[in-house]
Amino acid sequence: MHGWTKVDPSAPLDVQLNALRQNVERLNERVTQVQNEVDAELHKHSEALRQEQQIRAKDNKDLQSRLEAAETGGLYISFIGLLWLLLGVLLTTVSTGTDGGAAERNVLGKTNPCRRGG
Predict the structure, then answer these.
(1) Is residue 87 part of a domain?
(2) Domain of residue 94, residue span
(3) What pLDDT is stored for residue 45 in this prediction?
(4) Do the domain assignments include residue 4?
(5) Are 12 and 5 in contact (CB under 8 A)?
(6) Is residue 109 a part of any domain in this protein?
(7) CA-CA distance, 39 to 43, in Å (whole number)?
(8) What is the DSSP annotation of the chain?
(9) Phi, psi at 79, each rounded to 5°
(10) pLDDT in tens, 18-64
(11) Which of 117, 88, 112 is nearest to 101 (CA)?
């Protein structure tokens, strides 16, 4: 109902007033209709934004959990590697101190002249 009643300036005053009243009523109906449409769209967009916010919050928590797992998951492997490194250093230190000078003797039991600097 988007019609518009034309107002004839030469028509009697009550006819002009009646036409203007009809036009105002139609305008009021149209404004109410547009306002309802805008409110419905606003509600629809607000609901969509709320849902997106919930999805993003859930995804952020999931991502944070994955990052924490990746960071701390590597700690276990790093700790094991550190233990192996310390064990290797300890065994190397112990073996060089307790070899009884074997590094200075060759296969025939003679002293290695290169080891003594000469």
Answers:
(1) yes
(2) 13-98
(3) 97
(4) no
(5) no
(6) no
(7) 6
(8) --------TTS-HHHHHHHHHHHHHHHHHHHHHHHHHHHHHHHHHHHHHHHHHHHHHHHHHHHHHHHHHHHHHHHHHHHHHHHHHHHHHHHHHHHHHSSTTGGGB-TTSPBPTTTTT-
(9) -65, -45
(10) 999 999 999 999 999 999 999 999 999 999 999 999 999 999 999 99
(11) 112
Asked if residues 92 and 81 have their Cβ atoms less than 8 Å apart, the reply is: no
The partner residues of 105 in beta bridges, in order of sequence, read: 111
Tokens linked to 99: 């070899």
Kindly state whether residue 52 falls inside one of the protein's structural domains.
yes
Domain total in the chain: 1
Q: Which two tokens stand for residue 51?
A: 């849902």
Query: To which residue do tokens 């701390």 refer?
Result: 72
pTM score > 0.85 for this model? no
Whole-number pLDDT of residue 71: 72
Give the residue with greater pLDDT, 12 vs 101: 12
Q: With bands split at pLDDT 50, 70 and 90, how would you rate the model's confidence at 5?
A: confident
Residue with tokens 């805008």: 38
Q: How far apart are CA 117 and CA 104, in angstroms?
A: 11
